[in-house]
Amino acid sequence: MSKERDLDSYSEMLAEVQAFHTKHDFKGTGGEDLTYRVALMTEELGEIAEAVTKGKPVSDLAEDTADLLILLIGTAISAEFDLKKAFWEKMEKIQGRKSKMINGRIRVSEFKD
Ligand SMILES: [Mg+2]
């Protein structure tokens, strides 16, 4: 792959994850099954937790966070939704929310109570 890539571009990231799915035929081999993908994402979240709670180097945290991001992008491919659009819609929503301190930590939520 010698083509110049814009590393800041979401569409390039999406295309790369799509190429990974195509290379291994995820669609035809269960790799895009949503229940399986939830299990894979949970596994990566566990690795992220381990990196933090076991005091591992930040490079481990970065790698497992990237694993999760790749899975998230792949889940958008699998379920056929526009993750970039969902991201910006959700950011707009949460930017308008209020925050509260709960048990010494900030929480930004709808606070329906
Ligand atoms: Mg990992």
Keywords:
113 residues, 4 helices, binds magnesium ion
Short account of what is shown:
This protein is mainly α. It has helices at residues 10-23, 34-53, 58-79, 83-95, and strands spanning 99-102, 105-108.
The kinds of small molecule bound in this structure are: magnesium ion
Characterize the overall form. globular
Instruction: Write down the CATH class.
Output: Mainly Alpha
Number of strands: 2
How many helices in DSSP terms?
4
Largest sheet: 2 strands, antiparallel
CATH superfamily: MazG-like
Distance between the termini: 53 Å
* CATH topology grouping: Helix Hairpins
Q: Residue-averaged pLDDT, rounded?
A: 96
Number of domains: 1
Tell me the series of helices and strands, N- to C-terminal.
Answer: HHHHEE
The low-pLDDT segments are none
Report on the structure:
With 113 residues, the chain is mainly α. It has a single domain (10-108), classed as Orthogonal Bundle (Helix Hairpins), CATH 1.10.287.1080. 61% of the residues lie in helices and 7% in strands. The chain has helices spanning 10-23, 34-53, 58-79, 83-95; strands at 99-102, 105-108. Strands 1-2 form a two-stranded antiparallel sheet. Strand 1 (99-102) and strand 2 form a beta hairpin. Helix 1 (10-23) packs across helix 3 (58-79) and helix 2 (34-53) runs antiparallel to helix 3 (58-79). The longest helix is centred in the middle third of the chain and has 22 residues, at 58-79. The site of magnesium ion has 4 residues, from helix 2 and helix 3.
Write the layout of secondary structure elements.
Elements: H1 10-23, H2 34-53, H3 58-79, H4 83-95, E1 99-102, E2 105-108
Antiparallel strand pairs: 1-2
Helix pairs in contact: 1-3, 2-3
